[in-house]
Write a structure and sequence with these properties.
The structure holds two protein chains of two kinds. Chain A is of the alpha/beta class. Chain A has two domains: 114 residues, Nucleotidyltransferase, domain 5; 145 residues, Nucleotidyltransferase, domain 5, CATH 3.30.420. Helix content of chain A is 45%, strand content 19%. Chain A contains nine helices and nine strands. Chain A has a five-stranded mixed beta sheet. In chain A, strand 2 and strand 3 form a beta hairpin. The radius of gyration of chain A is 20 Å and the shape is globular. The two termini of chain A are 37 Å apart. The relative contact order of chain A is 0.18. The model of chain A has no long low-confidence stretch (mean pLDDT 89). By secondary structure, chain B is an alpha/beta fold. Chain B is globular, with a radius of gyration of 21 Å. The longest helix of chain B is centred in the middle third of the chain and has 23 residues. A four-stranded parallel beta sheet of chain B has the order 3-2-4-5, sandwiched between helices. A four-stranded parallel beta sheet of chain B has the order 8-7-11-12, with helices on both faces. In chain B, strands 1-6 form a two-stranded parallel sheet. Chain B has one domain. Chain B is built from 17 helices and twelve strands. In chain B, 49% of the residues lie in helices and 12% in strands. The chains are: A alpha/beta, B alpha/beta. Chains A and B meet through helix 2, strand 8 and helix 9 of A and helix 16, strand 12 and helix 17 of B.
Chain lengths: 275, 438
Amino acid sequence: MIAAGIDIGGKVAKAVIVEDGKVLGKAWNLTGINKAEAAERVYNEALRKAGLQRKDVERVVATGSGAKRVTFAQGTIADAAAAARGINRLYPNVRTVIDVGAEEGRAIKVSPEGRVLDFAINEKCAAGTGTFVEAMARALEVPIEEIGKLSLSSTQTIAMNAQCAVFGESEVVSLIHTKTPKPDIARAVHDAIAGRIGSVARIVGLEKDIALVGGVAKNIGFADSLKKDLKLDVLIPDEPEFVGALGTAAAAAAGVLEEEVRAKVLEKEKYAEGK
Amino acid sequence: MAETKYQTAGLKVWRKAKEIREKYYKDYAGAHDGRALRWGGGAWSFDAVPQALEGEIYPLTEEPYGASIGANPVFQVRCQEAAEGKGYARDLCAYMRGYWGSIIRDQYAFGGKWPKPDFIFQNHICCSHAKWLQVASELEGGIPYFCFDVGAGPYNKIGERQINYVVEQLYDGIEFLEKTTGRKIVDEKLIQNVYNTYISNSLWSKSCELNQNIPAPLDEKSMYSLYVLGTLQKSSKEVADFYKELYEETKERVANKIAAVGNEQCRIIGDSQPPWAFLRVLRYMEKYGVVSLGSLYTFSLIGWWRIDGKGNLVPYKTLEEQGIKIKDRDHALRLLTEGELKGKLMWAPFYGASLKNELVTKIASQWKIDAAMIHVNRGCEGTAQHQMEMKLALAKAGFPVMTYEGNMADEREFDEARTLRLMDLFLTETMGLKKLEW
């Protein structure tokens, strides 16, 4: 059976198509304002790469903040559930997954079967998300793709005092004005976000193996800061941004769908009426 | 409609609860028409005292008024912004900001202009309450104001010294009330008010205790409309009689296995005030067969309890049940103070996380919960304190816990869509439930 997972994140939409556990095609694009259109675009792109058409895909499940806008999905699962299933497919020994995206950072305790046992989410604060890194990269006038590498060449530790993304930007500007080297500022930014994410992770408890996924996992500077904050090593899959979509596709393939529940309820109602 | 596991039925007392509440706010606004006085003050405790003044006194207790503002998402934001426009910080108590905003806008949440109280008689529940009505008095150009301290210690450390501490202040308060209003405290009224206070608190607790049954006869969303009467005027005969009626009906529901949630399959407790403008999230979880049984907050904001010899939470007894006959004013004040300080367990969290944890884990066990779903309420530091400690304590006791952030009366800090997604996640993944209704 061919199944697809669509992950509509706050910034990036991802799609993964699988058959019997093998990835046939995947794609990503910027979500933009219209999440429904983003879903269509990314799904079409993944289909194209897989050499498939829509009729070839038996089930589609969506996740992410825009999941309900994926009109062609037969069901949805929660982001944390998607991340748990996704990492379980890649690293079955992972028991704690840290998922940092553009607008949310979360820590998830995962069962050996890939189910969510516990979770903690950085709900209201941009300072624990990819948006924070982007804002700081803009303030530093450094491309987002380079800020991670830049931070690794830091030679001194500077503490960022601001707990808030808004004040953090102001603090970065002040540091620039005091001629603090950019690598050191970049390091401070990553240490700050790692501190926040580390705190969230400690709420669920750090049980090995630990994995880091989501778009921000590609930032080698953040990954380094997080390992130092946790004082533990973390596994980072190739293409960590696709873990959620992969998990969603796995859920679709396994038949975890609201549709099935809905069908059961309808069946029950029909039976009750027939009495 | 699909069959449910248990039969359900609406509460017979529901309409009466609504009518009592509506009349309360109307009476307060129209008090001066009938030469009655308006009292502004505390919802938590000691309303028996100002209500013992001669003549008619109509109260407006601050917290439920703040919650009423909070239940209206448009009005609450206008009030919040009015308070912030005056320079009050956004991280202050959401009820307090809403209340101040109502004064600043000269707009009553129940229609018409803001009805100014004639006097304020308040107690220091928390650091916000200590300033709340003082600021309100200033905003209104100076209203006679009396405030007394009730921070005497947790329920298990209340002795004669602590009771004396509060009673002495109550005597000062009586002097203030008589001087300010030109009216006398009537001892017969005071005594009856204290009897009623015990009845209201005891019978609310007894009704909550019945939620230990399976299926639970009451759900927390409905309970909010029932406990509120105690926060308005627990010393009144009308409210005491209401709780008697509620208790009888709840017992009947238990006897007939009438459930609050027809498909009850998962029992949870919460914590702190809910997001008042979004109570539908409690109805949403019912689609999974989840019944929210209550919380330390819901059970003991109004509701007195004690720990029995076996270490269980049991309802406080009424004075009649204790065989106590109130002799005079001093006896009335002492009994009132003792009940409030020993019986109202909601004071306990103010004295430390371990106290809150102990009480909440007792509730979890006695009410046979399956999990906890906690509103991390940014609007109230008092009720939301120690929530992360509580989460750890419950998890250690073997109960899955989820948290969702929000604010009881500032809708700008509540993300409903995200909260529902978190609930879906917790209920499907962690609790292994499936939706039973759509």
